[in-house]
Every structure is written in structure tokens, then in C-alpha cells.
Write a sequence for this structure.
């Protein structure tokens, strides 16, 4: 067994893609309560020049599982991918499920930090990770290979049970909408760290994949073993059997009708908040196919008790895609005027194959349609565009680079993006507190940064609600827990306490979240962001939706109050993470 | 009087109110009473045929009731809770 250094035994892998070397070094003990997003933020603030070219050698790509990943804590295997985003030009963290987070932590690797880039931009490499360390290997034979075929080929050439992190052609072409794929429990590259173009950063470093061989390593053991396992058992039982057991048992696709009811199911490039196609895009339609076609709900990661991920089969009973979520049904469905969930499933599969963010890609296609270049509802046209992205055509590249890119090319006035990133489904016009999150989050318009679905929330509570949601979600995304488990800060600090055998106070856990946000805001400030970058796009200020004719009308000085930390109240620690 | 607890996504019509005390002898009467005070609330819970929306769950004093049990009796002091699962991935 390889020796592990450092007080905790954990290690950090440093990869130099200029020299194609990789080394494992001790993980700093002072970072032990940092994982995922908070760890990525700290590394980036300390080691990445915020003014660097996001696709240049000085950008830093971080892959960091959560603090609890690799333990028996339920649904705790999420991984954060971080770096300077080529889309927003600011700091970005994108979070994904799947197996690599658990596997890296079971080997004792708290993060992979990738710097540099190969001198020859045509060369491709892989990173092989096991208990002995990490090695950079040639991977030219995978040039242009789509994610599913890549995962199959890698599985065939690696030990059974290995998991993979990869990019598709979009990442190789360094397109700003490119995602980073992670394999799920079945080895499918269906879990994506999608937002912000981090797939392009990975591609800019010539890194096609990371392979993790966990070698049947046992789960990470907590310091207070008996208490930890009792907590796991009790928490899981409550989640599964409690009075409000598992509200997400049919996944986020089941949210479609509620969102439509609340005027936050954007239609035709956000020109309306409700869609006439709600019935044919409703996740219930997907669930109805399970009996006849197969598929069903499943874990995306080992140890998940939520099982909110769907596996979708076609009419012949063959696997089509997985993780067909609300955001995808909205941005690639309703927002493009595409009425059939089956077409959206095809588009979802294409995005996963090519390695694209479904939100950004759907928004870009909708802008293209809205500009008159294509009819709304042209599903076959949308599929053709995704293939063009993989081929690298001029149109494909423009759309693959996101909504702002195609909007600029088409000189279109309606581009719903903030800090360069397309808005997700949850619309800020009826959801003002969520809009404040979009404006002030270091991540740009990202619903997973702090979603508040409370249209009746009084104005005087918007700022606090956004700030608290941002803080809670930052901690959740650092812990390894999935947001759909909906842990609270008290839950997370209790698990941390038993993991390390020392109490983690409310103050400490809240500080972890706030410090993460501060690190990210500081990075963006140094990158050149100003208050002007917090402004919602004009189209959302001018285009009303719903009978109440809602627009974005929150004053900038109110929005900016979210940057001033409010005194923590008891309720903060009971707020559930939600994304 | 029974009290109806409103989930955050449904507080638009109630203008942010998270709990409303109403007169009612059944769950349905209580929901209708909320709607009478805050129009627009009831369609969020019941569809056009008067059935509970698929994505809504109802609880009385912490115990879930069947979707068909809208005529379940409630007494003074009882809590009728409406739960709507919202998340967006």
C-alpha cells in the first residue's frame, strides 16, 4: 500500500499538464473542514491568477469531492469541478453526482489540481489515479470520441469498478458551454458538472479523461464510529420513512406542472412563463413509460437514498438517457418551443455525448430560434445543431459557446444571461429572492447557488432569504451531500463532528459557508467584476410574464445588500439546502 | 379553529402568509376558506376537477391523508399542512 503523508493521511494530487507530470502531496490539515466548493474556492483564490486567460496555462482546474464523500453518510458522493470560467470570466464551481467523488476519497485524495497546458495543442492525455498515485498518459486515440463510447472503452481497459471523469468533443474544442462528465453507478457518463464551461478548461489543458481505480477500498472511517453510523441510520430512516418521506422520488422532472403554475416554466426564449406543452413535457409522462419500456428511478451514486435520477428508455425498450431533469425539460423543451419529452430526451443524450450544459445549450438554441433563424419547436433542427457542435461548424461553435455568443452573432436583442451565463428555468420575475441570488452569486445565474421558491415572500425578506440560501448551499456543496437530500447546516456539522471526533459549532459551519462566498467574491473582484455585472438583462426588466405582468424590478441598491452579512439567526441552521 | 399551513411555493396568493386560521369542519372546507380569503390559493392545491394535484400531499396533524380524503374531519386546533415538492435540477 502506498504511504500516505500528512497528519490526516489524506493527499492532494497536483498535475502539471505542461510537463505531463502528476504528484501526490499531503493535504493540509487546516483544510480538513473544506471540501468540494469551499476547497475549490480556497485553492483558486490562493493559486489562480483571476486575470488569467480561462483557456490558458495559468488557469487552474480543481476536482474536489466533498468532506463526507467516501464515508457511509447517505448521498454524500458529490464532486465539485472548479476553475475560472470561460463563459462568465469569473470563478466557477459546477457540482456533479456519480461515482468519482466517492472513489477519489476512498483512496484518500481530497482534490486533483491541474495546471499548465501541453505545448502541442493537438495532444490529448488521460490521468490515471489509483492508490499508488497518479500518472499522465497519452490519449490521442480518444480524440473526438463522444462520452458514452469513451466510457465504454475506458471501462474495457481499466479494472472493474473504475469511474471516469471526461470531456466530449465540445470540451476538446474548448467551447464555453462544455461540461465535465462523471460516470454513474452503471458506468454511464450521465452526471455532468455542467455550468460555466469547465469542460473547455479541461480541454484547454489537453486532459480528455481522469480514470479512478478505487481498488475495492473500504469506506472512510469516522473518528466516532458508533455515533456516526447511528446518525447515518437514523437520518436515512427518517428520510425514507418519515411523514414527508422522499419528496423527490420521481425526480425533478415531476416539478414541471408546479413550475408552470408558478409562471416559471419559461416558454420560447422566456417570452412567457407558462407553456402550452406542459402536459407533454411533464415528468409524469416519463414515469408512465417505465412499466412498458423499462428504465426507472435509480441512484446516480453509491450510497444515495434519494434515487431522484431517472433512467429513460426508448419505445423499443433500449436505454436512451439518464438524468432527464426539470432544467433540461425546460431549457431544451419549453424554452425552445419543443413539445415532446421524447425529443428532449434525445437532445439530453446528445448533450451528454458531446459534453454540453443542457441549460446553456437550450438557452442558446432558443436565442437562435427567437432571432428568426429557426422555427420554435423544430426538434430535429435542434438535434442537427447539436451534431454540428460536435463537428465544429461555424454555427455549432457559436451555439456551443453559449447564449451570449449566438446572440451576438445574430445581433439579437433578447439574450437572458447574467455574467455571461444563461439563466436557468427558475425565473427571477416571479421569484425575486432567487433573482437576487442570480445577481449576487459569484456563480452568476445559477439556481443551485441558492433557490428560493416563495413568490409571496415579503420584499423586506428577499435579501436575507437569498443570502441564507447561498450560504447553506455553499456548505452543502462543500460537504459532498446532494442538495436533494436537503441537509441543514445542523445536519452537516453533526456529521462533520462525528467524522473528525470534535464538535463543529454553528458559528464554524456558518463561517465555512460565508468564507466560501467571500473567497469567490474576492476572486471575481480581482478578475475585474464590478457592480455593473450584477445587473439583470434588459429583457427581463422589460418583458412581462403572467397575468400580473411580472418583470424584474428589484432596485440595485437592494440587491447589493446581499453582500453584507446578516447576523446568523437560529432559523439559518434549519434551512434545508435546495437546488 | 383549524390552521392551514402553506408551503413557500404557494404563498403568492397568501401574500407571504405561511399559516392561516380558518373556519372548517373538513380538510376541503378549510382549503376553500383559505381561498375565500386569498383567491388563487385553491387552484394550486386542486385541479379543475376538484382533485388534489399529483404533486401535492396533505397532512393533518403530521399524518398524511389520502388524496381522496378531502372530506376528512378536522377539529379546532388541528393543523392541515399542504406540501408541494419543489426542486429544480
Amino acid at each position: 500500500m502506498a504511504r500516505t503523508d500528512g497528519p490526516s493521511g489524506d493527499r492532494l494530487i497536483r498535475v502539471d499538464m505542461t510537463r505531463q507530470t502528476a504528484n501526490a502531496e499531503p493535504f493540509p490539515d487546516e483544510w480538513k473542514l473544506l471540501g468540494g466548493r469551499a476547497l475549490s474556492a480556497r485553492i483558486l483564490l490562493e493559486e489562480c491568477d483571476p486575470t488569467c486567460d480561462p483557456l490558458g496555462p495559468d488557469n487552474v482546474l480543481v476536482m474536489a469531492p466533498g468532506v463526507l464523500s467516501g464515508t457511509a453518510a447517505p448521498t454524500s458522493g458529490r464532486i465539485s469541478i472548479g476553475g475560472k470560467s470561460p463563459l462568465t470570466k469569473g470563478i466557477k464551481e459546477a457540482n456533479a453526482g456519480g461515482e468519482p467523488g466517492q472513489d477519489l476519497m476512498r483512496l484518500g485524495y481530497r482534490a486533483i489540481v491541474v495546471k499548465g497546458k501541453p505545448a502541442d495543442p493537438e495532444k490529448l492525455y488521460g490521468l490515471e489515479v489509483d492508490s499508488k498515485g497518479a500518472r499522465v498518459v497519452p490519449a490521442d486515440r480518444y480524440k473526438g470520441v463522444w462520452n458514452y463510447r469513451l466510457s465504454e472503452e475506458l471501462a474495457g481497459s481499466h479494472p472493474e469498478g473504475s469511474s471516469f471523469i471526461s470531456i466530449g468533443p465540445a470540451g476538446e474544442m474548448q467551447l464555453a458551454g462544455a461540461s465535465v462528465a462523471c460516470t454513474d453507478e452503471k458506468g454511464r457518463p450521465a452526471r455532468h458538472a455542467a455550468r460555466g464551461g469547465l469542460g473547455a478548461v479541461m480541454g484547454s489543458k489537453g486532459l480528455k479523461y481522469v480514470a479512478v481505480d478505487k481498488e475495492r477500498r473500504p469506506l472512510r472511517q469516522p473518528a466516532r464510529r458508533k455515533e456516526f453510523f447511528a446518525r447515518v441510520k437514523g437520518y436515512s430512516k427518517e428520510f425514507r420513512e418519515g411523514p414527508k418521506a422522499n419528496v423527490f422520488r420521481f425526480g425533478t422532472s415531476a416539478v414541471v406542472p408546479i413550475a408552470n403554475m408558478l409562471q416559471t416554466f419559461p416558454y420560447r426564449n422566456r417570452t412567457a412563463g407558462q407553456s402550452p406543452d406542459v402536459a407533454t413535457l411533464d415528468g409524469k409522462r416519463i414515469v408512465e413509460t417505465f412499466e412498458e419500456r423499462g428504465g426507472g428511478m435509480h441512484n446516480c451514486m453509491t450510497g444515495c437514498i434519494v434515487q431522484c435520477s431517472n433512467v429513460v428508455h426508448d419505445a423499443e425498450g433500449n436505454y436512451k438517457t439518464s438524468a432527464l431533469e426539470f432544467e433540461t425539460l425546460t431549457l431544451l423543451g419549453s424554452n425552445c418551443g419543443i413539445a415532446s419529452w421524447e425529443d428532449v430526451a434525445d437532445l439530453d443524450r446528445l448533450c451528454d455525448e458531446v459534453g454540453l450544459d443542457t441549460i446553456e445549450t437550450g438557452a442558446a438554441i432558443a436565442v437562435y430560434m427567437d432571432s428568426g433563424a429557426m422555427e420554435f419547436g423544430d426538434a430535429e433542427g435542434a438535434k442537427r445543431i447539436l451534431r454540428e457542435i460536435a463537428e465544429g461548424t461555424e454555427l455549432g461553435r457559436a451555439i456551443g459557446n453559449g447564449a451570449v455568443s449566438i446572440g451576438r452573432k445574430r445581433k439579437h436583442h433578447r439574450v437572458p444571461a447574467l455574467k455571461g451565463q444563461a439563466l436557468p428555468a427558475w425565473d427571477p420575475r416571479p421569484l425575486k429572492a432567487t433573482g437576487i441570488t442570480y445577481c449576487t452569486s459569484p456563480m452568476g445565474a445559477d439556481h443551485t447557488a441558492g433557490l428560493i421558491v416563495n413568490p409571496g415572500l415579503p420584499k423586506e425578506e428577499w435579501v436575507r432569504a437569498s443570502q441564507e440560501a447561498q450560504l447553506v448551499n455553499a456548505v452543502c456543496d462543500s460537504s459532498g451531500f446532494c442538495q436533494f437530500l436537503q441537509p441543514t447546516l445542523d445536519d452537516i456539522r453533526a456529521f462533520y463532528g462525528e467524522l473528525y471526533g470534535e464538535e463543529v459549532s454553528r458559528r464554524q459551519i456558518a463561517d465555512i459557508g460565508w468564507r466560501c462566498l467571500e473567497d469567490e467574491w474576492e476572486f471575481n473582484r480581482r478578475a475585474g467584476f464590478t457592480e455593473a455585472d450584477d445587473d439583470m438583462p434588459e429583457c427581463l426588466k422589460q418583458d412581462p410574464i403572467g397575468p400580473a405582468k411580472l418583470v424584474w424590478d428589484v432596485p440595485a441598491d437592494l440587491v447589493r445588500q446581499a453582500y453584507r452579512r446578516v447576523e446568523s439567526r437560529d432559523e439559518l441552521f434549519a434551512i434545508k439546502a435546495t437546488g | 379553529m383549524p390552521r392551514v399551513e402553506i408551503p413557500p411555493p404557494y404563498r403568492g396568493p397568501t401574500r407571504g402568509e405561511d399559516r392561516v386560521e380558518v373556519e372548517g369542519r373538513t380538510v376541503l372546507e378549510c382549503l376553500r376558506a383559505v381561498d375565500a380569503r386569498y383567491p388563487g390559493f385553491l387552484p394550486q392545491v386542486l385541479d379543475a376537477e376538484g382533485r388534489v394535484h399529483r404533486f401535492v400531499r396533505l397532512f393533518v396533524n403530521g399524518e398524511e391523508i389520502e388524496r381522496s380524503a378531502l372530506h376528512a374531519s378536522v377539529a379546532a386546533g388541528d393543523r392541515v399542512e399542504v406540501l408541494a415538492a419543489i426542486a429544480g435540477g
Chain B has one domain: 3-84. The longest helix of chain B spans residues 27-37.
